[in-house]
Fold:
Amino acid sequence: MARIFKNTKIQIQQKKIFIGPHEVAGFYSHLSKGFKQLGVEHDYITHNRHRYSYGGQTKFPLLLAWAFFFHQVRTKKAQNVYLKALTALIDEVLKNLWGLITIFKYDVFIFGFGHTLLRNNFDLYVLKLLKKCVIIQLHGSEVRPPYCDGAIKKHVGDKTELTDFLFLKAIENKNRMEKLQKLSNFLIGAPLSSAQFATKPFINFFEIGIPHYFDPSQETNNVEVLDQSKNEKNRAVRILHCPSDPEAKGTKLIAEAIKRLKKKGYHIEYIERKNILNEEVIEEIKKCDFVVDQLYSTTPLAGFAKEAACFAKPTVVGGYGFSLLRALLNEDVFPPAQICHPSDIERSIETLIKEPRIRKALGNDAQRFVREKWSASAVACCFLKLMSGDIPDHWWIDPFSFCYLSGGFQSENETKKKLRKLIDEKGVSSLQLNHNPSLEKAFVDFANS
Structure:
């Protein structure tokens, strides 16, 4: 990595790099810290402060400060409908004015979750015209077929029929994918969550990784906690679960599995924390033996699991596509975790409870992986390679080379139920898969299986 960076250092230092304006699970905050470690000048700026307080912004422009003020007035203080409308308008105008200025200020733009500088990604057309370098990191739900996404339930309005919502959302997500592919220089996505609507190869997310900045003080605290618990043979095994969306993460079924294990006689202290600040999550991770992330994941180490790995705490995670994912990835980029089919979640948790050696070895492997592969500086180096055009062939993933149907954040039965209802009421074309007839047929067969 260092060698590659040195070769492109002069070229990169001449470019002005922007990261933002949206944060997802600390990804961009840590990426910014990675660039700082490498001595690469950049600006990391977000529209609003994140609700989980990841922080790390390099600056907060005056226009955005005023926009944030009016956003706060609208969401927390304004009672009158006209005042709400006025503050919303001012907020939008200020953000767009800042966005227009920003377009001309930088050479490289790193965006995430489909959020760019202007509404409806209008700035992407301008950036394309100006021949700026645009790198877009996908996080899944913004381009995943909605009938495969259990996390969208909370976005369905009370007066909206689910089928109508899925139909319109499928069109929206496919259009977004087409736009992002057309107007970006590089699109980064995970194979199981970003490929269904894709029409051309994109950069494999697992070759880039999730950046994490290692705080030396946190690493010291971790060692103390591990030493403290070394000789406590009879203590309860402390298991942590921190769902951002309990229904999508399968929290109810995870808790039921823990209850059954307690009935078997295992001494378990189960900690379940919801919607807490990132610093609180870190403190809970330090005190646990291992974490249970979620039941229907498309990646072995998502954000919370990655945080646990930093402290050598292994993760149990369920999902339907891990065998396919192993076939698609080189072994050295497959993250270490106690992966399992959702139906085997209890058995996997039990394994880590009764086998301390496996637990410790897996935790150490996960920590080594994130330190070497997913350190903030290592991931930042991968972004520098994209900017310089020095891209290995194996980084690219062909969306037509494989077929994944099970989705994420919901059971296969739920996916099939949604598919059948959508096809019955809106027709096969409602799946928005006409660009890939074999995948469309596979989904129809899957729905009826």
User: Anything to note?
Assistant: DSSP finds 19 helices and twelve strands in the chain. The CA atoms of residues 117 and 256 lie 44 Å apart.
